[in-house]
Design goal:
With 294 residues, the protein is of the alpha/beta class. Helices cover 30% and strands 20% of the residues. Strand 9 and strand 10 form a beta hairpin.
Length: 294
C-alpha cells in the first residue's frame, strides 16, 4: 500500500510510532505534510525517512513555519535524533510537485493542508482519519462492558483534537469525493493502551521496527503504558478487517463532534479485534491483511 500522510509528528510519540508501524508493514510513503512544520519536527521526519530507506518529499503544512524559531519536539524525539546522529533542526524539502495515484490512501490526524495544498487527494479512493466519535447509544452494535469507558457513557458529541483543529477543513474532507471515509472513534482509540508486558513480546524485523522499539524502550524507562491512538488508525488503514464499523457521517455542534448513522460512504470505528491488533503491532501475526478489507 502507498500513502499520503498528514501528521503533527514530534509532539506526542504516538505519531512517530504510527509512522514506524506503517513503514514496518511495507507502506510506501508518497509525501508527508508535517503540522505545523517546526524545524525540530522536520528533523524528526527526516530521521525517520532515512531509517526507513525511502525518498518521499517532506513538507510543512504551514509555509515557512520552520523559520519561526518555535519547537514542537523534545524528550524521546531528541533522544532518537541523538542516537541516530541526526541534527536537532532541519528545513523541509523544497516546494515542488509530488506524484500520487488514485489507489494511494490518505491518512491524517489534524487537517491543516486540505484543500489548499492537497486538493489532489480528493481524487483518492480512501481516507482514514484519526478522529471522530459516535456514542454507544447511537448505534445498535453491542460493545463489551470492559471496552466502554465511563467518561463516554451517555454522550452523543465530544471534543476531538484532530477534527476540532479546523472545523472548516474537516467539513471539506466530508464534501470531497472520496469513495470511502473512515473515522477512528475516540471512544475506541482511548481503550488501546500498550504496556511493558506487551512490549517484551515485540519482535524486530527491520529498521522501522528498531526505531519503534527504541522509542518505546525510552518511554518505558519511567512509564508503564502508552496510548496507541494513531497506531490503531494506521492498523485499521492497513487492515480494515480488524474493525467493526457503523455507517455514519460526522457532524459538529458548538465545537463538539458526533456522528449520525446513515447509508453514506462514511464509516466510524466502534470496536476492534484487540488480540489481532496486538499481534499485528508486536509482529506476532503470521498473515497481514491486504489493506482493502471492509
Amino acid at each position: 500500500m502507498s500513502m499520503v500522510v498528514e501528521t503533527d509528528l514530534g509532539r506526542d510519540m504516538d505519531d512517530l510510532l504510527a509512522l514506524c508501524f506503517m513503514a514496518s508493514q511495507g507502506v510506501e510513503f508518497k509525501v508527508w505534510f508535517i503540522t505545523p512544520g517546526d524545524a525540530d519536527q522536520i528533523a524528526v521526519a527526516k530521521m525517520l525517512r532515512s531509517q526507513f530507506g525511502q525518498t518521499f518529499p517532506i513538507f510543512c503544512s504551514k509555509p515557512d513555519r520552520h523559520k519561526s524559531g518555535k519547537h514542537s519536539s523534545g524528550g524521546i524525539h531528541y533522544k532518537l535524533l541523538e542516537h541516530f546522529d541526526m541534527p536537532l533542526f532541519a528545513d523541509p524539502d523544497p516546494d515542488g510537485d509530488f506524484c500520487i495515484s488514485k489507489d494511494d490512501v490518505f491518512v491524517c490526524g489534524p487537517v491543516t493542508t486540505f484543500p489548499e495544498k492537497l486538493e489532489a487527494i480528493s481524487e483518492l479512493d480512501q481516507l482514514f482519519m484519526q478522529g471522530g466519535f459516535i456514542g454507544f447509544d447511537v448505534h445498535d452494535i453491542e460493545i463489551a462492558p470492559e471496552h466502554r469507558l465511563e467518561k463516554f457513557e451517555g454522550l452523543t458529541e465530544v471534543s476531538t483534537f484532530n477534527m476540532g483543529g479546523s472545523k472548516t477543513r474537516t467539513l471539506a474532507l466530508l464534501d470531497a469525493p472520496f469513495q470511502q471515509r473512515t473515522f477512528i472513534g475516540k471512544n475506541v482509540c482511548h481503550t488501546i493502551l500498550y504496556d511493558v508486558e506487551m512490549h517484551q513480546d515485540f519482535q524486530v524485523r527491520n529498521e522501522a521496527d528498531e526505531v519503534f522499539k527504541l522509542a518505546c524502550d525510552f518511554h518505558f524507562e519511567d512509564k508503564t503504558h502508552k496510548a496507541m491512538h494513531d497506531v490503531l488508525a494506521s492498523a485499521i488503514a492497513l487492515d480494515p478487517s480488524l474493525g467493526t464499523f457503523v455507517s455514519a457521517t460526522p457532524y459538529c455542534i458548538k465545537g463538539k463532534w458526533g456522528s449520525t448513522p446513515d447509508e453514506s460512504n462514511n464509516r466510524v470505528l466502534v470496536d476492534v479485534d484487540r488480540n489481532r491488533l496486538w499481534e499485528m503491532i508486536t509482529n506476532k501475526r503470521e498473515e497481514q491483511g491486504n489493506g482493502r478489507g471492509t
